């Protein structure tokens, strides 16, 4: 099997793809999403890579898969895997099918469960927290901007067994992209899932780390082998083993909808200077089939000012100064009828403690320059800009102890100083929901294209 | 080494989200000796790490991964990724408080 890239849009080399396709690949997979870029992309229905880069990657993969007549499986389409993300990916793929006159069966697997179903499951006590966990109520399930469910291998298996040549999956477990076909063919689920986890980030497990690229996974009945498709790259036992830690709370346990993969007894051995063999992964089926729900909700409109402070007297009193900006902005906002529960003002002090905040180990060391960001999120764009304009004025002109610079406290790098960032979202759902059937919330749509790349009705 | 710190023994010291509500920090040591020295020391103490990261000590999970000479430290995020007060959406710069963790041998601290 071929893992084309860590994420559709991150790219891969043509050399690697071509080299891989000469080796008898059974199917091509690629993940296209993540929640790591934060809640905005899920909530706003937008991808976090460009449409041009999605098209570039998908075009090469579609053509390679059709030429070899093997399935192409794309997981977490468009980043978030929600309806607008799937729609965008579908439109790109359909245009490519038409342009290249490809004959194929396309499967689109949706992954936004009906809200009523989720509310009912919550009432039945069949939605559970995921460590560290937080409470979930019916209103959040009803009102959140978008909620997706992360599918396991089963909807992919269903689509392949119905003859799909290309699968565009909504939100999907990264590993499931690679575990589906092996499970259909009776391979050990522990090895299949662990292989999936190992290659889902593409050439992240290989070096040199010069951009993203393809990885080939070969599954046997007692082990699997991973090897970079690009001849200049290599994998080592420690680079492969280390990946089980990556973005995962534990290196020994991966929770999937159908069960838990255990890698604690694994052996990693080099079979040459580029390829690594892995054995010993086991799988414990789950007592109840669950899928992770990920939800994001609009929490307001954001507007920011970026400025710099160089005055050493002000820097010495920056903590008191920050408090003053907050207090005075609250008073001024109230004068416009905006109360403090209608907006948040976050003052980010780059160069001092903006990144680590109260965890900053060197907070006592004063820098000679501080980047100041005033960050307002309010209920409307107009309100955010109104509060921000007050905060900016106050930052510029507020008196502080020992002040000499009475014409202005901060340096603005450009005009206009105030930038509207647009809608801001937050994660509101991060829970596991029990399903009655692994396909229950993943309806599959099939579209057949003829030799001219046209839809067959 | 006078006043050795965790960063002096590490080949990789990185942090990242493990989902939107969990932060995970990987320390991969330079060699077996460094791994053994630090894991036998009193440095990787849940209470000390909890204090540095301002989370309850029972929420700090320390997992040894000897196959790759690594220690993984996992804890809840202070706020969800991208939430209003968040400063690090990917959680990728949260390893620094661990860099400066003093490494002292048990009993001689």
Automatic annotation (TrEMBL), chain A:
Cross-referenced InterPro entries: AtuA_N
Residue span, Acyclic terpene utilisation N-terminal domain: 89-181, 227-396
Protein name: Acyclic terpene utilisation N-terminal domain-containing protein
Organism, scientific name: Orrella marina
């Amino acid at each position: 099997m071929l893992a084309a890239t860590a994420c559709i849009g991150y790219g891969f080399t043509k050399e690697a793809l071509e080299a891989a396709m000469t080796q008898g690949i059974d199917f091509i997979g690629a993940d296209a999403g993540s929640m790591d870029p934060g809640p905005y992309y899920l909530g706003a229905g937008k991808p976090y890579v460009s449409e041009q880069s999605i098209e570039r990657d998908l075009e090469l993969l579609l053509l390679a898969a059709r030429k070899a007549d093997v399935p192409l499986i794309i997981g977490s389409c468009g980043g978030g895997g929600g309806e607008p993300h799937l729609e965008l990916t579908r439109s790109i793929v359909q245009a490519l099918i038409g342009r290249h006159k490809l004959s194929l069966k396309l499967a689109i697997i949706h992954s936004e469960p009906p809200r009523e179903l989720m509310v009912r499951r919550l009432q039945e006590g069949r939605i559970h927290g995921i460590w560290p966990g937080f409470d979930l109520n019916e209103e959040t399930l009803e009102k959140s901007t978008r909620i997706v469910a992360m599918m396991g291998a089963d909807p992919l298996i269903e689509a392949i067994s119905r003859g799909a040549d290309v699968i565009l999956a909504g939100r999907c477990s990264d590993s499931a992209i690679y575990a589906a076909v092996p499970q259909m063919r009776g391979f050990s689920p522990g090895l299949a899932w662990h292989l999936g986890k190992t290659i889902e980030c593409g050439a992240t497990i290989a070096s040199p780390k010069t951009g993203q690229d393809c990885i080939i996974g070969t599954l046997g009945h007692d082990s699997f082998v991973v090897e970079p498709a690009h001849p200049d790259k290599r994998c080592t036992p420690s680079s492969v083993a280390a990946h089980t830690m990556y973005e995962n709370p534990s290196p020994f346990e991966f929770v999937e909808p159908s069960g838990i993969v255990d890698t604690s007894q694994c052996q990693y051995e080099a079979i040459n200077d580029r390829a690594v063999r892995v054995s010993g992964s086991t799988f414990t089926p789950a007592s109840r089939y669950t899928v992770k729900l990920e939800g994001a909700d609009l929490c307001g409109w954001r507007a920011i000012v970026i400025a710099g402070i160089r005055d050493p007297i002000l820097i010495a009193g920056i903590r008191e100064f920050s408090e003053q900006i907050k207090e005075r902005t609250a008073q001024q906002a109230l004068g416009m009828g905006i109360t403090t529960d209608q907006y948040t003002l976050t003052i980010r002090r780059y160069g001092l403690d903006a990144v680590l905040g109260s965890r900053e180990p060197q907070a006592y060391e004063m820098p000679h320059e501080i980047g100041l960001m005033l960050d307002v999120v309010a209920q409307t764009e107009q309100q955010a800009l109104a509060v921000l304009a007050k905060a900016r004025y106050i930052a510029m002109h507020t008196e502080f102890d020992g002040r000499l610079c009475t014409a202005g406290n901060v340096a603005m790098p450009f005009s206009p100083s105030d930038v509207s960032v647009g809608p801001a979202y937050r994660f509101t759902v991060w829970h596991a929901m029990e399903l009655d059937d692994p396909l229950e919330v993943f309806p599959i749509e099939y579209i057949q294209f003829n030799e001219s790349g046209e839809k067959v009705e | 080494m006078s006043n050795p710190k965790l960063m002096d023994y590490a080949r990789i010291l990185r942090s990242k989200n493990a989902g939107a509500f969990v932060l995970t920090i990987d320390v991969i040591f330079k060699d077996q000796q460094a791994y053994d020295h630090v894991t036998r020391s009193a440095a990787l103490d849940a209470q000390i790490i909890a204090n540095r990261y301002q989370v309850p000590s029972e929420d700090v999970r320390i997992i040894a991964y000897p196959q790759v000479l690594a220690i993984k430290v996992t804890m809840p995020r202070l706020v969800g990724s991208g939430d209003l007060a968040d400063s690090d959406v990917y959680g990728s710069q949260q390893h620094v408080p661990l860099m400066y963790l003093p490494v002292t041998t048990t009993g001689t601290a």
